[in-house]
From TrEMBL:
Binds 1 FAD per subunit. Binds 1 [2Fe-2S] cluster per subunit. Residues 1-95 form the FAD-binding FR-type domain. [2Fe-2S] cluster binds at C221, C224, C236. PROSITE patterns: FAD_FR (PS51384). CDD domains: DHOD_e_trans_like1 (cd06219). This is Ferredoxin-NADP(+) reductase subunit alpha. One of its GO terms (biological process) is pyrimidine nucleotide biosynthetic process.
Length: 272
């Protein structure tokens, strides 16, 4: 069992949970994720590790209420126990000294972006980060991201904070004013798709971290498959990060919506 030791409510639908998992805290690297199950009936939820504290033996997970299992997880409190928590899974981000890194995070994708921004900064890069969300209350972990970024640009769809517009508007401003050597994009699939199209135009190598549906997380079930460069890849063992210019985002978006009806039915059955 894995105990929740701290909870922070970022917004109505987004929470940060700090969970006691000392072995994962010791070995996790930027880009790694875990899969958890609240109880015997719970779905397996893949979540990227936003932060880890080796001393305290804890990891931080940012969760958004999307379906039944994520809603139940968001409603758990310090002292509650999570049944299973497996990780670290996936390949760590390739962090290296490249020059200037443009880091783009959308919504809860800002959480997995945090350790990557920290990693690139510690590797000696200039890091410019663009954070984007629908509105001010959905911009999360801004203080932590600022700690490891040379500059942070905030974009909101409704203009309630920072500049009004999409992540690509902020990213293009950066690309047009200075040399960008590498880009990393994490967020909703559609946001990563358009960030990839933008950076392809400027020939900037770009990684995107895919939020595929997962079951086992060990390369056996095929639930997380994605087409990358015309080949089938498993997000859980080959990723979660891939060359964004080679990802078939339209297929990913279709696959992410594949269980919409079942999710709706389950929601009505359980929540009412
Ligand atoms: Fe089953 Fe990746 S989650 S193969």
């Amino acid at each position: 069992m894995y105990q929740i030791v701290q909870k922070e409510q970022f917004s109505e639908k987004v929470v940060k949970l700090v969970v006691h998992a000392p072995r994962i805290a010791r070995s996790r690297k930027p880009g790694h994720f875990i899969i958890l199950r609240i109880d015997e009936q719970g779905e397996r939820i893949p979540l990227t590790i936003a932060q880890a504290d080796k001393g305290a033996g804890t990891i931080s997970l940012v969760v958004q209420k999307v379906g039944i299992s994520s809603t139940r997880l968001c409603e758990m409190n310090p002292g509650d126990q999570i049944l299973d928590l497996v990780g670290p899974l996936g390949k760590a981000t390739h962090i290296h000294k490249v020059g200037t890194v443009l880091a783009c995070g959308g919504g809860v994708g800002i959480a997995p972006l945090l350790p990557i921004v920290e990693g690139f900064k510690k590797a000696g890069n200039r890091v410019v980060t663009v954070l984007a969300a629908r509105s001010k209350d959905l911009i999360i972990l801004e203080k932590e991201i600022r700690q490891w970024s040379d500059e942070v640009i905030i974009m909101t769809d409704d203009g309630s904070y920072g500049n009004k517009g999409l992540v690509t508007t902020g990213a293009e401003q950066v690309i047009q004013r200075e040399q960008v050597d590498e880009c990393i994009a994490i967020g909703p699939a559609v946001m990563m798709k358009f960030t990839a199209l933008l950076t392809q135009k400027y020939n900037i190598p770009t990684q995107a971290s895919l939020n595929a549906i997962m079951v086992d997380g060990t390369g056996m079930c095929g639930a997380c498959r994605a087409s990358v460069g015309g080949e089938t890849k498993f997000t859980c063992i080959d990723g979660p990060e891939f060359n964004a210019h080679q990802i078939d985002f339209d297929e990913l978006i279709l696959r992410l919506g594949g269980y919409k009806n079942e999710e709706k039915e389950a929601w009505e059955r359980v929540i009412g």
